[in-house]
Amino acid sequence: MSRFRLSLAVAVATAILSGGLAAASAVFADPAPIPVTIRDHKFIPAEIHVPANQPTVLQVTNADPLAEEFDSPDLKVEKVIPGGQTGIVRLRPLKPGRYTFSGEYHAKTAQGVVISQ
User: Fold this and answer.
1) Euclidean distance between CA atoms 98 and 49, whole angstroms
2) Candidate CATH numbers 3.40.50.11810, 3.50.50.60, 3.30.380.10, 2.60.40.420; the one for domain 34-116
3) pLDDT for 28-85, tens place per residue?
4) How far apart are CA 54 and CA 56, in angstroms?
5) Prior bond to 93 cis, omega within 30?
6) 109-112: long-range contacts at Cβ-Cβ below 8 A with a sequence spacing of 24 or more?
7) How far apart are CA 64 and CA 107, in angstroms?
8) d(CA 1, CA 27)
9) Count of Cβ atoms closer than 10 Å to residue 112 Cβ
10) Within 13 Å of residue 8, how many CA atoms lie on the same side as its CB?
11) Between vectors from CA 82 to CA 78 and to CA 84, what angle results, nearest 5°?
12) 18 burial class (0-12, 13-18, 19+ CB within 10 angstroms)?
């Protein structure tokens, strides 16, 4: 094989691999986060709609001075969000349905549901 053809083959292979890696990184990139706020020991919004069968990211900002735990046996998630800080909660792809969550430290008021459809 001539040097030109070898160089061309290497260039084509590199372009294919680079494009494949870019496409793969786009597939594995986090989706745009859904903002959720904890204020007065309540989740806002308390009802979160997510696409079925796709991973989801919640960006939970705790506007209260006290820590709160985003807790959900349904979602298999526990995440403590310190007062005045923001945390990321990653949800696995969910089948269509309703998945409850609560604030473990203020469970009487901090309640919500993720609806996957």
Assistant:
1) 9
2) 2.60.40.420
3) 677 899 999 999 999 999 999 999 999 999 999 999 999 999 999 999 999 999 999 9
4) 6
5) no
6) 109/40, 109/41, 109/42, 110/38, 110/41, 110/42, 110/43, 110/68, 111/42, 111/43, 111/46, 112/43, 112/45, 112/46, 112/47, 112/48
7) 15
8) 36
9) 19
10) 5
11) 135
12) exposed
Which tokens hold the place of 53? 């069968």
d(CA 25, CA 30) in angstroms, rounded, equals: 10
**Residue 12 carries which side chain, given as an amino acid letter?**
V
- Is 22 in a helix, a strand, or coil? helix
- Token pair belonging to 111: 């309640």
